[in-house]
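Before drawing any conclusions, I looked closely at one protein's amino acid sequence and its backbone structure tokens, quoted below without any editing.
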Amino acid sequence: MTIDLGANIETGLNYASHSFSGYLLAVGVIGGLTMALLQAAKDLTGWRARFNRDRLREWLQARVRVLNPDATDQAHFVDQAELELLRLATDRDADAFYGAELEALAAQFSGAALLVLDYPRLNSELFRLLTVHATTQDVDTLLQEYKPVIPIPGIAVQQYSAEKLTAEAETRHKLTETRNRIRHQVTQSISSFQVSAAARWQRRLKGYAWLTSTALTFIAFLFSDVGWRQAGWLLLLSAVSGFLAPIARDLLAALQRLRA
């Protein structure tokens, strides 16, 4: 059994000019078709990957401007940081990194960032870039070459004096507190990046949904017998269907989860 979406839209438009229930039917059909088209565009093109990459590079660029405000080639620092993050997160598989949803991208990003935080001297430039908003004292503390801290109670401690053990315990506590402060700060920064990027994506998606639904409504209007006197209702129909299109997508996703 096949469904003629064009016929359904035309029927809804004709019915919408006389019935509120018909109006709702047309809104639902146009909204569903709009989201289907947008989903197909996202899946078949690199639209989502380009958006994710642009947002991450903007995030890195803002940090480069803070870290090296006088640098003449800031794009070079962004490129190097991006390549290193790709290497740590997905073995430089850009499609796996940027092609994922924002939640998955943020999880991969966090994993790579935490690896740099745990071993800061492996890439001190990326470490300083990720911790650009942390205090200079904390950053320098983790980048300094410390002597090995005496493990407790991994070895016999009788050979060390009380003063030595106390000093080592204070050093260990200082490193732990510093690492925790920086880890929380970077984790929150990545969470903020995710929230900001998701909000921009939703705004862009709603804008495209409104434009697409408007175009579909106008095309259907040209092939229907609705008079021009109902043009105002049609404009309202297209506007509402565009704003309700993301809701239709979420309802469809919920139904699919229930069926799974």
